[in-house]
Amino acid sequence: MEIIRSVAELKAKLEEARKNGSVGLVPTMGALHAGHLSLIERARRDNDTVVVSVFVNPTQFNNPTDLATYPRTEEADAALLRKAGVDYAFIPSVEEIYPEPDTRVFDLGPVAEVMEGAMRPGHFNGVAQIVSKLFDFVRPTRAYFGEKDFQQIAVIRRMVELEGFDIEIVDCPIKREADGLAMSSRNVRLSEEERAIAPAIHRTLEGSLSWAMNHNVEETKRYVIDELNSFPHLKVEYYEIVDALSMQPIKDWNDTKSAVGCATVFCGDVRLIDNIKYPERK
Predict the structure, then answer these.
(1) Is 123 marked active-site?
(2) Rounded to the nearest 5°, which phi and psi values hold at 64?
(3) Is 95 among the domain residues?
């Protein structure tokens, strides 16, 4: 594995790699865990060359404290990437990615206006900025994203459409700890007590599947919110049940063939996200 820190070197290496077949890209912000490794494993199966970017992107953080406390573990990340059989690890500086401020504003539309878009103004525009840059640098055949960030995938698909990238977006299942907690780089910030409580998020979402069979959308949302808020250390920021493609909230189960419940929950001071897919009503 080669570690590359400059855009120019990355482009030169990949120009040669593309002549020999497909290129898979896994964009990450580092602090890698088994969830990231599952994306890399899929990319390794699908492509001749695999590139993983490790970059904590400042433009997608609307909370300076969140940016400052985001875990950075470059040495450990590089060791994991070598073991996973990655060809190129792109680990640039902020100055390399943003030699000047990125003032682009993307017309991401309704998929970016709800949930995370409403709670974190500017977040998805920052995501579109960095992912579009990475796509331009790497020009991958395929790019891989985890379904934990469900809304983000819809936003990236919209950005790809806007920018005209010829790239396949591959969404991969959530990877969970043995107790059900969705793997996240933020989990390391949980105290021991908070870590013991955090799996209640997934348990509650799973419990809502059977509840939803006999209750309407609003009642199901209320069930999840009330249940989660009943746990010490947990506080729901939002729980929405949306159409999986448009990301727009639904009012009736029959409004969509693919309903997804998306939760953002504070566990202490750590903001965790998770989601669950509801079965189609017959």
Answers:
(1) no
(2) -60, -35
(3) yes
The predicted-structure confidence for 189-213, as pLDDT tens digits, reads as follows 999 999 999 999 999 999 999 999 9
Based on the fold, state whether residues 201 and 268 are members of the same structural domain.
Answer: yes
Place of tokens 């006999």: 214
| 74 and 200 assigned to the same domain | no
Among 85, 88, 81, which Cα is nearest to 31's? 81
Q: Which of 33, 36, 123, 202 is catalytic?
A: 36
pLDDT digits (tens, 9 = 90+) for 143-187: 999 999 999 999 999 999 999 999 999 999 999 999 999 999 999
Q: Is residue 147 part of a domain?
A: yes
Q: With beta carbons less than 8 A apart as the criterion, state whether 274 and 148 touch.
A: yes
Contact criterion met (CB below 8 Å) for 43 and 142? yes
Query: What is the arithmetic mean of pLDDT over 63-85?
Result: 93
Residues 142 and 229 in one domain: no
Which tokens belong to 52?
Answer: 């993983």
Task: For residues 138 and 265, state if they share a domain.
Answer: no
Range of the domain at 81: 2-172
In terms of pTM, does the model score above 0.90?
Answer: yes
